[in-house]
Amino acid sequence: MEKLIPFINDLHDILSQAGLSSELNLPSIVVIGSQSVGKSSLLESIVGREFLPRGKGIVTRRPIEIQLHQVLDAEQGWFEFMDKRGEKIFESEDIRKLIETETDKIAGKNKGISPVPIKVKYFSKDILDLQLIDLPGITKNPVGDQPQDIEQKVLDIVMPFIKNQNSLILAVSKASDDLATSDGLKLARSVDPNGLRTIGVITQLDLMDEGADILNDLLNQTYPLQLGYVGVIMRGQKDIQKNKTIIEQIKDEKTFFEKHKIYKKYSEKMGVNFLVKTLNMNFIQHIKKALPIIRETIISLVQVKEYDLKQYGDYDNLETKENKNLLVLTLISKFSNSYKDMLEGRCLDITSKELIGGSRIIYVFNDNFRKTIQKMNPFDILSDDEIRTAIKNANGIRPSLFVPEGAFELLVRQQISRLRMPSIECSHIVFEELRRVINQISIPEIERFDTLANRISEVIENLLNKCLRQTEEIISNLIDIELGYINTSHPDFVSGMDMVNKDEQRSSQQQVQLQKEKSPLQSENESNKFFNFWPFKNNKQTELYDSKLDNLNKKRKSNINNEKQQKLQQIEESQILQQQIVINKIVSVNQQYFVNDPKRQLPQVPNTIKITDRPSKREQTEMDMIKDLLISYFNLVKKNICDSVPKTIITFLVNQSRNFCERELIGLLYKQELVDELLQENQFIQKSRAEAKQTLISLRTCLNLLNDLDSKF
Ligand code: GDP
Ligand code: MG
């Protein structure tokens, strides 16, 4: 049983060296209470040596962990400080100075505090094994460099120690304190409400007024704790000044209790020595309770570290060139398989709450690309005036007879061109998604080799770039194909004649109203105006149009064929020409007379001519029709593009990069001359592996210690 405390001390050592003590919550005794209640004095009394810094106000400014090791054959007690194992420090003065310097080093010189513990060991034949932690006292008023919230800062240091369910709490109060308001007890209650692991210590019983006593408190009647209270008397300031030793004080303490009118009945359960025995006994019990959890924690830590070590890879196996080559090959195929899995949705180990890999690409197509294209409307960028201008410009000097085909093609091409940018952008977004997938691939065996990981990224980045360029080109071609031939006979396209019919229906309703007002000739002209439009889909309409066209041609032909008339016409024309020459002469003669007549002068032609007047009825009809045709044809192209662009991206970017990934990597990286360079191990990994190995050794040592301990019971 008595081996338990040294065992725990060993665990503390082994695990703190491996940086694991905080993960294990090892048992320890934590001393808490207000400032100047006597915490440090108590520790010194327990150790039997004056080794702690002393002074007014806040002196203990970092947690001080003190391990007591009983060494039965030690003639003289000695300290060991922090990591200087084996270096014996015999003088209390020396260890105190070390503690002071170490405190200043981390917490500053002026009353600052720090949670980083200072570790001290004490070896002696006159002590019982213990592990104690002295903590800064609870204080409410900041002094020196202390921040305004000093109380909170101290609590931040104290709480983790006392929250540890495996710690025993030594709650120190002064005899003059009311137990109900004692800071130490209040804090202890907050983490141990049933008082199962708190021992109450009441100091300065010697300073009470004569006749006054706190027997009720000491007998656990005021504020009961499972482990009870112990009253102690330590050296006051005056005693210290008089160089009274701790041993002398312990003797005096004994006398005080034995002679005290009220306490003498209980004198055996009073004083520092009794407290040490109580602590030792309770601590052993406490450790016994904690052992199963400690064992479980160590076992799970071993598993974690073994896993870590596996992730860092076994470098010792990489002695031969063949092994190295094989490793490069294995890692390359692991990488390309991961890439495939991510794209095809087989990355089951990632429990992600968001879309990943291939599913993000489909989102890009459906929610990003398709929706944007569908929302595009020809009239986002095209005003009525622009359409009218386009119609007029396309007609040139000839007034249009038919549907202004030139204007339609010009405008529809303009619209199709608008699809080029979003389509190419879509391929760029998918490219970024693929890079994201690559970045998400995490293979620790690859990450341990910096150069290999970098070269893989480089090769894949180049491959993706190559695929992107090809994809861009094909997408651009898709748009060029749409631009290259405006297929107005596409079955999904609402042609000009459909528009005519639609418009005729619309106007026939108006006609009924207008008929009475208009002459029959006018009304016929109105209804026939649409025959001038292209293209015709309806056969009847086409025939009608053709017959009209034939008549016109026949008329012209018959005119030309009639020679007599031709001659007559020639004579007539020559007469007109002569008349014209005469008129011109008159004009030139008379010109000087008209120069100064402003009413006869034509206005100057402006540099830019814009349409400003309201469209005529005919213009309006032409415009409406062009608009309908534009929408119809643009929708048709949009549908094609929404289908063909994602197909192109999947085929030439996603699938190509996936299919060529492994081949490209092997081609560029699997080379005899590269292997040593590629398998240069990352220094951080080397360090982590060494640490993991060391930690594993420490943990296994702890497990062995535990097993040894079991075999002794
Ligand atoms: P801490 O701030 O809680 O660590 O308190 P210290 O151990 O530094 O003690 C504060 C002061 O109280 C010191 O001057 C001690 O000598 C004095 N002191 C502590 N305990 C007793 C005691 O039981 N009796 C008397 N008379 N003085 C004590
Ligand atoms: Mg102190």
TrEMBL record:
<dbReference type="InterPro" id="IPR030381">
    <property type="entry name" value="G_DYNAMIN_dom"/>
</dbReference>
<feature type="region of interest" description="Disordered">
    <location>
        <begin position="504"/>
        <end position="524"/>
    </location>
</feature>
<dbReference type="Pfam" id="PF01031">
    <property type="entry name" value="Dynamin_M"/>
</dbReference>
<keyword id="KW-0547">Nucleotide-binding</keyword>
<dbReference type="InterPro" id="IPR020850">
    <property type="entry name" value="GED_dom"/>
</dbReference>
<dbReference type="InterPro" id="IPR000375">
    <property type="entry name" value="Dynamin_stalk"/>
</dbReference>
<dbReference type="GO" id="GO:0003924">
    <property type="term" value="F:GTPase activity"/>
</dbReference>
<dbReference type="Pfam" id="PF00350">
    <property type="entry name" value="Dynamin_N"/>
</dbReference>
<dbReference type="InterPro" id="IPR022812">
    <property type="entry name" value="Dynamin"/>
</dbReference>
<dbReference type="Pfam" id="PF02212">
    <property type="entry name" value="GED"/>
</dbReference>
<dbReference type="GO" id="GO:0016020">
    <property type="term" value="C:membrane"/>
</dbReference>
<dbReference type="InterPro" id="IPR019762">
    <property type="entry name" value="Dynamin_GTPase_CS"/>
</dbReference>
<feature type="domain" description="Dynamin-type G">
    <location>
        <begin position="23"/>
        <end position="292"/>
    </location>
</feature>
<dbReference type="GO" id="GO:0005525">
    <property type="term" value="F:GTP binding"/>
</dbReference>
<dbReference type="GO" id="GO:0005737">
    <property type="term" value="C:cytoplasm"/>
</dbReference>
<dbReference type="InterPro" id="IPR001401">
    <property type="entry name" value="Dynamin_GTPase"/>
</dbReference>
<feature type="domain" description="GED">
    <location>
        <begin position="623"/>
        <end position="713"/>
    </location>
</feature>
<dbReference type="InterPro" id="IPR003130">
    <property type="entry name" value="GED"/>
</dbReference>
<dbReference type="GO" id="GO:0008017">
    <property type="term" value="F:microtubule binding"/>
</dbReference>
<protein>
    <recommendedName>
        <fullName>Dynamin-like protein</fullName>
    </recommendedName>
</protein>
<keyword id="KW-0342">GTP-binding</keyword>
<dbReference type="GO" id="GO:0005874">
    <property type="term" value="C:microtubule"/>
</dbReference>
<dbReference type="InterPro" id="IPR045063">
    <property type="entry name" value="Dynamin_N"/>
</dbReference>
